[in-house]
Amino acid sequence: MVHADEIDDALGGDAAAAAASPSESAAPAIKKPTFSPLAISAPFYEQFTDDWNSRWKVSHAKKELTDKSIEEEWAYIGQWAVEEPSVLKGIEGDKGLVVKNVAAHHAISAKFDKPIDNTGKSLVVQYEVKLQNGLECGGAYLKLLKENADLHAEEFSNASPYVIMFGPDKCGATNKVHFIFKHKNPKTGEYEEKHLQSPPMAKITKQTTLYTLIVNPDQTFELRIDGKNVKDGSLLEDFTPAVNPPAEIDDPEDSKPEDWVDTPRISDPDAKKPEDWDEDAPVEIVDEEAVKPEDWLDDEPEFVPDPEAKKPEDWDDEEDGDWIPSTVSNPKCQEISGCGMWEKPMKANPAYKGKWSAPMIDNPAYKGPWAPRKIPNPNYFEDKIPSNFEPIGAIGYELWTMTKDILFDNIYVGHSIKDAEKLQKETFDVKKAIEEAEEAATAPKAPEPPKMVDSFKEDPLAFIKAKIEPFIAVALKDPIAAIRAFPEVAGGLAAVIGTILALLIGLISLAVAPAKVKKAAPASDKKPETKIQEAAKAEGSSSESDNKPKASRRTSKKA
Q1: Of the ranges 178-182, 314-318, 446-450, which one carries the lowest mean pLDDT score?
Q2: Going by C-beta distance under 8 Å and a sequence separation of 6 or more, which residues neighbour residue 419?
Q3: Which of 212, 278, 304, 358 could pair covalently with 126 via S-S, beta carbons 3.0-4.6 A apart?
Q4: Which of 221, 218, 202 is nearest to 210 (CA)?
C-alpha cells in the first residue's frame, strides 16, 4: 500500500532539484552602508581599523603539549588577515580578523593599555563571529589573559594563563558555547577551571553571530546570542567543580563496625518446606493423552535429497570424498501433520514447583545503610565573590580548526551593558538585517506548482509528464509500490516497452537472416561420349512418358 506522504516525499526531492536550477535570474543588488568607526569608550574595543596591527601580535611560539610521550613539536603556523567578508557582506569596508588556514594552530593576542580590574563591577565581553564556510571541527572562542610579568615577556600560547574563556566550539557531537573561568584556591594558591554546566549550543550559520557574556557583581551571569538571552545562572551554583568545597567531608579513618547490619530483608528462619514439595519433579512430562494424527506418515523421511542438486564439475572423489547431495524438506510432509517416527509430545508438569526457598521477611537487626561520619573539611574555604576576577591584561585567540575564513569583529571588553548594546545596535543589527535580506534574495526560489491537465487532448506532453513523473519518483524508492499506486502508467509503459522490443527483434531478425542463393549444378565427371549416349536414351524414352507422371529420381535409376 502506498501512502500519500510517501509519494509527496518522493516528489519533494525532484521539486527541490528544480528549485536549485542555475537558470534562475540573479538576485537584485541590496544597498549597503559604508563602514564608519563607532566611538565608544571601553577598556578594550576593536573594530579592526587600518592601524589594527599596532595592537595585535601574531604568535610564533611552540604549543605546549600535556602528553609528554609526543615528541613532535607543534608551532603556531596559522596565518591571520584583516579583510572584508567574502560571504554575505553586510557593510562596505567593514573588515574583521580572519583565520586563513585549515588544520593549523593559530594564535594572536592584543595587550590592553591598562589591566582590567573587575572588583565590584560588571564584566561585559562581546564579539562577532562569522563562519563564512561553516564550522566543521574547531573553535571560535576568545581568552581573556591574566595580567602578569610573563604576559609581557613571552609570546602568547596555550600555556599562557587565562582568566575567562568564552565562545563557540564545535567538533563531532560537541557543539557548545564555552564559559570557563579560572578560580584561585585561597588555601593552596592553585588555579582550577570552573566549567558552565549545560552550556548552550553554538549557532552555526554563515551570517554574523553576536556572542555576549555579562558577569554581575551579585555573582549572576547571562549569556546572549544575537542579543537574546540563552542562558543565565549563578557563579556559585552552576559550575563544575563548584567554586567552594563542601564544609564537611567523610572521615577517611572511619570504618563500618563489624556488627553493623545493612541487609534490609532476610529469609524467614522459621519457615519449613512443605512435606508435599517435590524438588525433583521435572519441568515437563510426556503428554500421555496425545494421539498420533491420522495423516502422519511414519515411513516418509522428514528430509530428502535435493532433486535439483548437481555434483560440481570440479569435484574429485579421491580428494573431496564421496559427494552427497544437499537435502530439502520432504514435499509430502508439507501439508500434513508430519513424517517419520511419531513420539508423544511433552507438556508442562502441573506438579512442578522447583527448588524450595524460605520466604523473605524484614530483618529485625537491620540498622540502615552505613555511612562514615562527617568531619570538618580541612581544605574548606568560602569565596562569596568569585566575580572579582584577577586582573586581565590582554585578549587572545588560540585556535585549531578544520575550517578557514572564520571572521571576528567588533570586540568589546568592559563594564557597560549599555555601551555593548549600543555597539550591537549600530553594527551587528545593521549588518544582520542586510545579510538576512541578501541570503533570502539569493536563496533558491520555490518551484511553481505543476500545471494540472485533465485530458490528453488539452496538452499531450503535459498530460504524459504529469502521469509519468510521480510514477518514476515513487519507483526509484519502491517499484512494487509504484505499480500499485499507478497501475495505468505501469500498464502503459509495459505496453510501450513490449512494442519496442517486438520491433527491435523483428529488425534484428531481418538483419541477420541469410539471403537465398540458387545452387549451381554439380560438376559432372562423365566423359563426353557417355553424356551423348545418355541424352539419346532419355530422348527415346521421353515419347513413352509424355502421357505418364514423371518418375522420381529414385524411380529413374531403377528403370
Answers
A1: 446-450
A2: 40, 41, 42, 124, 412
A3: 212
A4: 202
| Sequence letter at residue 296 | W
**Under 8 Å CB-to-CB from 355, ≥6 apart: which residues?**
279
Measured in whole angstroms, the distance separating CA 490 from the mean position of its chain's CA atoms is: 36
Q: What angle do CA 135, 137, 139 make, to 5 degrees?
A: 75
Residue 213 · residue 179 · CB < 8 Å? yes
> Mean of the pLDDT values across residues 437-463?
69
User: Do residues 21 and 446 lie in contact, with contact meaning Cβ atoms separated by under 8 Å?
Assistant: no
What the block records as the C-alpha cell of 400 is 585549531
How far apart CA 469 and CA 458 sit, in angstroms, is 18
CA–CA dist 261, 370 (Å, integer)? 9
Dist CA 45 CA 62 (whole Å): 28
Eight-state DSSP code of residue 332: G
Over the Cα atoms of the chain, what is R_g?
Answer: 47
Tell me the C-alpha to C-alpha distance, in Å, between residue 540 and each of 191, 533, 534.
Answer: 139, 11, 10
User: Is the pLDDT reported for residue 396 higher than 90?
Assistant: yes
Length, in residues, of the chain: 559
Percent of the chain with pLDDT over 70: 79
According to the model, what pLDDT value does residue 19 have? 37
Would you state the pLDDT for residue 107?
A: 94
DSSP per position, 378-415: TT----S-TTSPPPEEEEEEEEEES---EEEEEEEEES
Query: How many C-beta atoms lie closer than 10 Å to residue 20's C-beta?
Result: 12
b/e per residue 325-359 (b: at least 16 CB within 10 A): eeeeebeebeeeebbeeeeeeeeeeeeeeeeeeee
Indicate whether 114 pLDDT > 80. yes
Grid cell in block for residue 421: 548594546
